[in-house]
Structure formats: C-alpha cells, structure tokens
C-alpha cells in the first residue's frame, strides 16, 4: 500500500487534548480529553472516544455521532464500521468520533449534563467557554480544516422518531449544494431532507457549510433505543457514501428509484399541541397526508365529559417525524410534515 501523508489536526487553539494520533498510517482507537474542573472531576479530564483508520492516499472523512446523547443508532453504527474495516481497505482517512457529546451520551440526555448545552446549537463554538462550546470549537477549528467531507449521524432521540433519511444542506451561494445532494443520494435512504432555512448555522451542518466542507447528516429512527431497521440503514448508508467518496471500493446495487426530496419550508410543517392532554395519533411517520387530514387527537382522560380535540394537517406532505412523548402541553411537538421539493 503506498505511503500516505495526512495532516495532523492542530489542537493548539483548543482546551481539548488529543490523546490519539490521527495522522499516522494504521488503525487505532483512543480519546480526546476535555479539561473541565467541576465537583465531580475537579483535576481530571472528561474523555471522548476517538478512532481513526488511515490507509492509502485519498480524502479525509470526518464521521460523527452522539452529538445528542440520547440518539443511539449513530454511535453503534460507527463502532461497527470501525471494527469491520482495516487500513488496507481504505483510500484516505476516517476520523471517527462516535460519542462527540460524550457526557450527554453517558447520561442518555439530549443536552450536556455538564452545562445544559445543546451541542448542535453551539457552533462555531468558543474554546474559552463552557464544555459544549469547547466541543463545538474543537470540530470547527481543529477537525473541519483537515476534512474533505463530513457525515453526522442523528436520530429522534427519546422524544421523537424520524423516517430514516439523509439531510443535504443548501448554502447561500449554492457552491456545496451539488456535492451535498450527491452524498445524500448516495446514502441510499428513500427520503432526502433538503435543508434550506431549516439549516441552523449553529449545527454541524451549518459549521461545515461555513467552512466549505461537503456534509450530510442523517436522521435514523429514534425513540430511545437502537432500532434494527434504522441501524441497518445507517450501516448501509455509511458504506454507500464512503464508496461514493472513493474511500471504500465496495460494490453496491444501484438505487431502485431516486429518493423522495422533501423540505420543511412552509407554515404548518411543525405540528404542535394546542392544549394539554394525551396525544393519540391516527397517522404515523412515513405516511403521506393531504391538507385537512386527521393526524390524531388530544384526549383528556382526567375530564371524561370533554370531547377529544382533533389535530389536522395544515399542509400536504410526508409525516417525516412523530413524537414519542404521549403527554403533551401547549406547544409540544407532535409531528413534522415535509413538503415535496418543487
């Protein structure tokens, strides 16, 4: 195998220490160490698992999961991918962070137990701020500069369930749009969620777009457990996308049909509860609905004489996600209805 020369990420501007060599040829696991002094760990470090596989010359792909700590399919998929590959199979380099928000992953919470921060709303981050900001800065300032592409795996967490889909961001100048859509299509899911206004610039997607690095995310089930079908979609999607990028030499069957392209771009895409009660769904994620279709009811078992409140779709489209929290209060998320891309 020809010798490859890859840049070591520059961690000098970060308060997170690298306890792993991310540039030398071979395959290795290790940790990154966050310096954060609190009552639980005043003089130590909070460790974040990291791994890399460095093969022959080729692109560097940054693989992330566990940005939210209650989203489990991604960490399992990246662990299984790492265990399945050897450097001889790789053209390029894989930098793998399967539990990017490791404190939240270990606590099983969406946001960090160290500071309450939502990592996917913290970019580009700040090395001198609290842990969530420091982790975001690590990605923005240290890892994105050495990456040629990024794949960021998510799910609905404990609160919701998403139709397995790939997410392709659209930037203001459109320069990355073709590469992002090509990666999302290669992932092989039946649905591609195209991000426009919904591409939060405080997210991994937003940071990669700002840095000029092609990036896709994926939403893969959820509900607080590792779903069999979403995990299979994650594993297949990773390998298909890495093959598309030239990192793997796998052979894949062509897609049976182009993916359904959808977006959240219209008033009414977010369905929320108008009042407190238990949400009883009549339709589920993956169903297509017309405007006015019944989605479910808010019922009040504590008020037996009250009639259930109907929840109806305001727009036509695909139910992209649904709540997994039965008890609702005013404003609680019930569903996303995605519109077909014009």
From TrEMBL:
Gene3D superfamilies recorded for this chain? Zn peptidases
Keyword Hydrolase found: yes
As cofactor, the record names: Zn(2+)
* An annotated Gene Ontology molecular function: metal ion binding
Per the record's keyword annotation, is Ubl conjugation included, yes or no?
Answer: no
Q: Which UniProt keywords apply?
A: Hydrolase, Metal-binding, Zinc
Report domain Succinylglutamate desuccinylase/Aspartoacylase catalytic positions.
Answer: 57-245
- What InterPro entries does the record point to? AstE_AspA_cat, N-alpha-Ac-DABA-like, N-alpha-Ac-DABA_deacetylase
Record-linked Pfam families: AstE_AspA_cat (PF24827)
Q: What is this protein called?
A: Putative deacylase
């Amino acid at each position: 195998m020809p010798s490859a020369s890859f840049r070591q990420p520059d961690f000098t501007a970060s308060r997170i220490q690298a306890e792993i060599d991310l540039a030398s040829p071979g395959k290795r696991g290790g940790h990154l160490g966050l310096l954060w002094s609190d009552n639980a760990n005043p003089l130590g470090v909070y460790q974040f698992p990291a791994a890399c596989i460095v093969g022959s010359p080729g692109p560097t792909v940054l693989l992330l999961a566990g940005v939210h700590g209650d989203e489990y399919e991604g960490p399992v998929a990246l662990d299984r991918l790492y265990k399945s590959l050897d450097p001889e199979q790789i053209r390029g380099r894989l930098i793998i962070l399967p539990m990017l928000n490791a404190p939240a992953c270990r606590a099983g919470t969406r946001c960090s137990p160290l500071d309450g921060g939502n990592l996917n709303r913290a970019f580009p981050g700040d090395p001198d701020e609290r842990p969530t900001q420091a982790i975001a800065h690590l990605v923005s300032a240290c890892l994105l500069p050495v990456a040629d592409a990024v794949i960021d795996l998510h799910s609905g967490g404990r609160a919701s369930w998403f139709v397995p889909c790939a997410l392709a961001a659209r930037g203001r100048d459109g320069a990355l749009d073709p590469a992002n859509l090509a990666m999302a299509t290669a992932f092989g899911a039946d649905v591609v969620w195209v991000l426009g206004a919904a591409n939060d610039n405080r997210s991994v997607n937003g940071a990669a777009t700002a840095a000029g690095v092609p990036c896709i995310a994926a939403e893969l089930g959820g509900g607080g457990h590792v779903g069999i079908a979403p995990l299979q979609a994650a594993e297949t999607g990773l390998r298909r996308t890495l093959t598309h990028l030239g990192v793997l030499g796998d052979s894949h069957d062509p897609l049976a049909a182009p993916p359904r392209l959808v977006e959240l771009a219209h008033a009414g895409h977010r369905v929320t509860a108008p009042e407190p009660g238990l949400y009883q769904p009549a339709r589920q994620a993956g169903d297509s609905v017309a405007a006015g279709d019944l989605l479910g009811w808010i019922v009040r078992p504590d008020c037996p004489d009250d009639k259930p409140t109907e929840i109806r779709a305001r727009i036509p489209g695909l139910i992209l996600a649904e709540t997994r929290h039965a008890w609702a209060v005013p404003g609680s998320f019930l569903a996303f209805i995605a519109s077909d891309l014009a």
